[in-house]
Amino acid sequence: MNTCIIAVIRAKSNVLEIYMNLETVGNIRLKKFDQLDDAQLAASKAAANVAGFSFPVTIFRQGTRTALSGALPMSFIRSRLERKSAPKKGGIMDAINASNRPLDAAHAKGIGEYLTENMAGKYILPPLALNLQQPADVYTLDIQSTVAPGYLVLPMTAALSITDGQHRVAGVQAAIDKMVFDEQARFDQDAMAVMITCESDLSQIHQDFADAAKTKPLPASQLAVYDRRNVANGLVLDLVKACPVFDGKIDATSSTLSKRSSYLFLANQVRVLAKTLITGSWKDTEEVFETKAGKLLGTKGSPEYINWLGQFSGFINQVVGNNNVLAEIAALKPDALAVNSRIPALRDEGWICMTTTGLQIIGCLGHDALQDPKIDAEEIAQKIGALDWSRTNPLWKDALIGADGKILTQSPSVQEALRRARQAVGLTTPTSAPITAEEL
């Protein structure tokens, strides 16, 4: 780090001396002024002289490195950022020479579709991590602080490369490509937050990408609560409220459920039930599930949504009311769960209806009953609840339950168990997807 003092003279009605502190940090020169207005004016003039771009940033420190943060308009994001993706199935040298991992076209397309669908409302794109390899000037205040405002001047020849976020940038371009001119003009005025490092060492750029990827994804149960783009996630929360067997007995923050947990299910397990009720299959992709849910439910609060919420919750409550195990759990007071060991005790007994597999079967049967107006769904729900859901029931032997008494969760096993359960409750003509030879 090099520091020197330079006296700058500006002619006005009287000669005024402004002292500027010049500090070099990596490949950035920090030009420090007593007043922020002077820093802004100097940055604007410098940008004009090099046909460049000046934008406000916050200068801050992480460890031994000085970095910058700010926001860039979408027009800049899609036209001026540089990425160098590694080729798919490339060798070690291909990866070393690249600054980004291979581009996942499907992932970028998904982001583009998300933006297209939500640009007229509310959407969120996390900040980009960028890197500036060429020398650049930042005009800032001469103050004793590790965090300060400033203005970065990017010459026309300087390139901001993407360290982390290439799929977001590709998604922005994919969204723009589908917009008409007026939509493009509006979208280009939006912006994305950015963090800028100033590294010329490619190995450090690679390390920064690896470090940025260390974020922990949300557990599926939290996504079921927070991600409301899929209207079915809202349905999950409403089902929990409408069904006493779930109300106050669902863990919405964990990724797994301990055998000793006083909660009955994870939020994501209830989401599996909602998925099978809507689609008749637990194997649909998220994209297919979201599409089917939207077509069936409409929007939250719509007449279609209210109708299906009533049908689904009524069906579940009928099943629970005719099942001794689930009815007992439904009667438990939520505020006493923490000191009540009944749910763990019932779980130890191995009831299939207290498992994800059990919910899959119940949901598929419910889909068949509710989608066919000729079927008495209430009667079917009563029969489903009255089934023997113990592991010793011959109905499940050699299909869902293996020789060791454990549940077989492979798709063919669950499909065979579903076929038997369907016959047991009198659903001879399923409306859900037929069982293929490959599945059996």
**What form results from the Cα inertia axes?**
elongated
Low-confidence stretches: 1-17, 433-440
> Approximately what portion of the residues adopt beta-strand conformation?
15-25%
Distance between the termini: 69 Å
User: DSSP helix count?
Assistant: 17
Evaluate the radius of gyration. Answer: 30 Å
Average residue pLDDT = 85
Strand segment tally: 13
Strand order of the largest sheet: 1-2-3-8-9-4-5-11-7-10-6
Share of helix, binned: 40-55%
The structure class reads alpha/beta
Number of domains: 2
Major pleated sheet: 11 strands, mixed
Return the string of H and E elements: EEEHEEHEHHEEEEHHEHHHEEHHHHHHHH
Features of the shown structure:
two-stranded parallel sheet, eleven-stranded mixed β-sheet, 19% strand, 43% helix, 440 residues
Question: What topology does this entry show?
Answer:
Elements: E1 2-11, E2 15-25, E3 28-33, H1 36-49, E4 53-62, E5 65-73, H2 74-80, E6 81-82, H3 92-97, H4 105-118, E7 128-132, E8 136-141, E9 148-154, E10 160-164, H5 166-177, H6 181-187, E11 191-197, H7 202-212, H8 220-226, H9 231-242, E12 250-251, E13 265-266, H10 267-279, H11 286-297, H12 303-321, H13 324-331, H14 342-348, H15 356-371, H16 377-386, H17 411-424
Parallel strand pairs: 3-8, 6-10, 7-11, 12-13
Antiparallel strand pairs: 1-2, 2-3, 4-5, 4-9, 5-11, 7-10, 8-9
